[in-house]
Amino acid sequence: MKILVVGLVENEQMDRLWREGYKRGHNIVGCYSSELVVLAELNNFLPTLRSKKIEDFDLLYFWAPGKKRWDWYATANYLHKKYSMIVVNKKNLGRYNPSILEDLYVQSDSGIDFPKSAVIFSVKSVNSIVGNFKFPVIVKMANGKQGKNVYKVENKKELKEVVAKLEKDTGEAIVIREFIPNDGDIRVFTIGYKAVGAMKRTPKEGEFRSNISQGGTGSKFDLSKYSNIKKLAEKASIAAGVEIAGVDVIIDLRDNKPYILEVNPGPQFMGIEKYTGINIAGKIINYFEELYSKNGKR
């Protein structure tokens, strides 16, 4: 099987996927999202990777198409319809527009518990929404990653200052979220909408962010003892339509109730392999093989 990974090229994660695929006789190729070139004319729509054929691939895995995602989604739709190419994650094939608002809507509509949240685009909107929250609150960029541009604010004045800064720096959607007392979060890795492993991420002393990139530490989390968290993560990945996901869950220290924080469609898996010993890369390849077998050779 020939597999194209969009947005993953030269790093440890791509190397792990390549090695696991190579063991099974698969050819895995990574590309930058910027490599896409499409020639369109009457009766001809030809996407390539800078003149290299895309249609020869059996499976396309969206890992991180980034800001060029809309162009890649259109291309994937074409490849799926024209050549029956398998596409992972299917979330991107016309089901809905991936955004924080759509994620919140889907979770709300599916009965999935998540912290109360508001999405705004300007500091001028703070007054209209602040009455719905108790301080402290979490403020973050809607498309933020690795704990960057995430703040815990204690009052309205500080909230306005942070929102104004984010608005000026990025101009993108801003999320205000209720703060849930916790001792870290849990990253549940799902493949084919099934939880295959989990790790606990504990923030360093004096920090509220649990991200490893922000100094947090990781440890194995035994999902077999927490069926409610396993079911919640699987339900969230199904609702979002994300086949391979890193589902972040937080547990309220006041009543042990779990909440979904995020369903990440481009999850890092080196950490969970390190702390749990689970061969995530191998399980991803297994899933690709299952899809290929189910859909038949093209």
Automatic annotation (TrEMBL):
Per UniProt, residues of the ATP-grasp domain are 104-289
Would I find Transmembrane among this entry's keywords? Answer: no
**Superkingdom, natural source:** Bacteria
Keywords of the record, alphabetical order, are: ATP-binding, Metal-binding, Nucleotide-binding
* Any one Gene Ontology cellular component term annotated for this protein: cytoplasm
GO annotation (BP), single: SOS response
Q: Name one Pfam family in it.
A: RimK
One Gene Ontology molecular-function label = metal ion binding
Q: What is the protein name given in its UniProt record? A: ATP-grasp domain-containing protein
